[in-house]
From TrEMBL:
It comes from the Bacteria. This is Glutamyl-tRNA amidotransferase. The lineage of its organism: Bacteria, Candidatus Kaiseribacteriota. One of its GO terms (molecular function) is carbon-nitrogen ligase activity, with glutamine as amido-N-donor.
Length: 150
């Protein structure tokens, strides 16, 4: 079952269970997916590919994380609570990310493959590793691992 179809099923389950947080979050994901379809010139009745849905969910999770930081910096914890609840639901749909220990051997292999020996090519190396991992790792973790190789 595709992620898009899974979201529709979860939406119905959340309605039946009267789970407001999950319902609100899944509706937000579905809306963002529809917006993505329209932005790419497709009709709202089409379905996004799994990797496109994951990209949309990652973007929504990033927005929630930024909002939480802003609310806590402004000393508004009551506004951060719903964002944290939604973030927990969003993270349930995201694939588990690789750890730095799992990234290191791949980064070392790409470094050897590219023949990079100095820090001047750091950006290219990070880009190549990210391309090889295809969204399975956080960019900050990849950058930290690549920097530690020099």
């Amino acid at each position: 079952m595709s992620t898009h179809t899974d979201l529709r099923v979860t939406l119905k389950e959340a309605m039946k269970a009267k789970d407001e947080v999950r319902l609100r979050t899944v509706r937000g994901i579905m809306t963002a997916c529809t917006n993505e379809l329209v932005a790419t010139g497709r009709t709202p009745q089409d379905e996004l590919k799994d990797e496109e849905v994951i990209a949309v969910i990652k973007r929504l999770a990033k927005q929630r994380k930024e909002s939480i930081v802003q609310y806590e910096a402004a000393n508004r914890p009551e506004l951060a609570v719903p964002e944290k609840e939604e973030l927990a639901v969003l993270e349930a749909y995201l694939p588990t990310l690789m750890t730095q220990d799992q990234i290191r051997p791949i980064a070392e292999a790409v470094k050897a493959e590219m023949g990079v020996e100095d820090k001047s090519k750091l950006g290219q190396l990070v880009g190549a590793v990210m391309k090889k991992l295809q969204g399975q790792a956080d960019g900050g973790d990849v950058k930290a691992v690549v920097e530690s190789l020099f």
